[in-house]
Structure formats: structure tokens, C-alpha cells
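Key idea: predict the complex, not the pieces.
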Amino acid sequence: MKKKNVFARGLFFSVSCLFLLSCNTSPKSVVDINKQFAFAAQQTEGLLKNLCDTALQFPLSINSDGNLKTVGIYNWTSGFFPGNLWYIYEYTQDPKWKEEALKWTHKLEPIQYFTRHHDIGFMMYCSYGNAYRITGNEAYKDILVNSAKSLCTRYYPDAGIIRSWNYRKSRKGYDWHCPVIIDNMMNIELLFFASKVTGDDYYKNIAISHAKKTIQNQLRDDFSSYHLVNYDTITGIATGKGTWQGYADNSTWSRGQAWGIYGYTLTYRETKDPEFLDVARKMADFFINHPNLPEDKIPYWDFNAGEEGYVPDFVYDTNIYPVPPRDVSAAAVTCSALLELSTFLGEDGKKYYQTAEKMLQSMTSPTYMANKGENGNFMLKHFVGSLPAQATAKRNEPGKGEVDNPCVYADYYYMEALLRYKRLLEGKTVI
Ligand code: GLY
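Result:
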């Protein structure tokens, strides 16, 4: 009798285990994250072979001859390569990646005092921000706070905005004395960080003022975005609205919309002000519900390129671009943002999460993912830097606008999205 009981219990346990295994409810990844980070490491090893350890040159893309295109430390993209190294280290935990990440991050130390454009947020938060998050080194905190102070020198208190670029003339000949671009919503993450670590709301208040002013002037009623708004720095009145990298003044440049979705999502994370969540969501809705968004969810570089009612800001040659090129970076940025946005919306978050999954699948497919050793050793293909820059470039400036190229920051946001996705699958918070 006793023996029979033991046998029955054993049988019950085995059947239960089998049952539990067969109905394992933990969500399944739609992409092979491990494989993608192994590939990221392989490609980045290839990139490092073409770079000089001691030179202050950072990879951006490839030139028209297929050779690596690098930029100096003052270029707005310089922080992304160190960021990529940190993401590979974060996933692999291989100390060799930490060593590289430290080396490339430290090259940017002088940037903490840089005030000539607004992109110090991108440059320092993607490099030193990740370095601080991952290593906890207090010296990095001070460098980041100095960087935030530098960004704040561009704030005009009477107007309530942070000036993006210094004076420039528009292609139509307008004077832009205080141009603000939607991209600037990304730089304010550095300011929220500075307030958190110093306990001083000065930085955060500037970030909030900038975010509110941007809602007032940079967004249209349908929550699409102008790329650029020019301000009067004394009255704060928007004196002009247009584009620099998009198709037309009234069009929606895809990456600009992506920066907005990401920027308002992070602003909600940092403030918990429902107005910012509402804006993030509506900007995301514009993007994901747009009739011109292709089935694979990788947008054309501008939502309105070639459409009636939109007059291009430059000569747009439909023989060269019979179909508008895609911009995979706009998808990568949006994908990472949607994953975070989905966590703030309960059941309603599902559609943003599912769209992000679809984007991850598309980006990971051979259409967008390079083969080993190709694509200048970057990961993603089909990025657009600035189509107007390419279209208006002189003959001796080939590849100026990086149209249909790879790009360091498309890879950055792709890897960030993979890491965020992995955390969500493991039941953790997104960051
Ligand atoms: N922030 C510049 C760009 O997105 O091209």
C-alpha cells in the first residue's frame, strides 16, 4: 500500500512537471536577442579594426566609396559609438567591451564644457550617461552635471526654450536666429538626470519649460511635428515654422516624429505629468496609424514625401527617388520609445508593444540587417541622414546626406530596444 502511494505521488509529480513545461506562459521573444548581440559584437570588432585608439574620430556611417565615415568629438553623433559599446557590454558582460567602452567614453570628456549646439545631451548622455548607469563611477556624475550646465547656457528664460542651433539661414532665405528642432526633446533627459543627482530643480524646470513650449509651437493639431521652429528670444513668439531635414515645411519628417515620441515618453517618466503622456501617445498614434507607414512598420524618411499639398524645400528628383527611401533609424528610435510607452498605459499599452515587436522583427530581418563584415561593419541598413543635404550637395561632396546608408545611431537605438524588450520579457521594468 505504502509503495503504491509513493509510486502514485511520483507519477503525479512527473505529470505536473510535464504539464507546467508544456504550458510555460512566460512570453516568447519574437527575435533571437542572443544572436543579435553576438552579431553586434562581431560587427563592432570589425569597426574597431578600422578605427584608431588614439584618434578622436568616431564612426558615423560609410562614404559613397564604401569606406568608413568618421566624425570628430564635436559632432552631434559622437556619443553613440561609446553607447553601443556600453550596450554590448551590458548584454555580454564581457570585460573586453567594458574596456573599449571606457576608452571611447573618456575621449568625450572635454565635451562637458561644450556650448555651441544643443546636442550635448545626445553626446554625453549616450556615452557618460550609460557609463554612470552601468559602473556607478561618481566622477561621471560630475561630468554629466557639468554637461547639463553647458546645455542650460542655451536656455532663454524669457522665451522658455533651449536654442538648438546658432544662427543659420533657411533654404528659403529666412533668418533663423533662434532655431529649435524637435530633436531637442532628447537632450532634456540629461537635465532630468542632473536634477535627480543634485537635488536642484533648476535643470528639471528648464526641461519642463522647453517641453511645454514645444507642445505649444512645434506640434500640429494632429500631433505631427514641425521639424523646426524659430523663436523671438525675448517674447518667446514663434516667428517661423519649417523644416531642415524633412521634405517640406508642412510635412512630417519621420525621425523628428520619432524624437518627439521618445522625448515626451521620457518626459512623462521623469515628471509623471499626464499631459506629457497624452502627447507621447498621440504622437505615437500619428506614427503608427499613418496611412503611409508601410506594412513592415519601417517609415519612409518623411511621411509626406512626394505627396500633393507639400512643396519640397529643395529640388526633390523623383528620378533619383521614385519611391521615398526608408529611414530605419526612425523605426529604431520609435521602437525603443514604444516599449517604454507601452508600460505606462496598462491594457492600452498592448498595441504600442505589439508595434514595437513588429518593428524589431522587421529590423532583424535580412531586408534591414546586414551580413557579417558588410555594411561598413554596422548592423542596420537603409538609414537616411539628411536627404535635403544630399540633394543640395555639390558634386564634390558625395554621400553628404547619408541616404540609404548604415548609421551608428540606428544601431544604438536598435540595441537599446533589444535590451528594453529583454527586460520586459523577464518581467522587469523597461530601464
Ligand atoms: N538630430 C539630428 C538628426 O536626427 O539628424
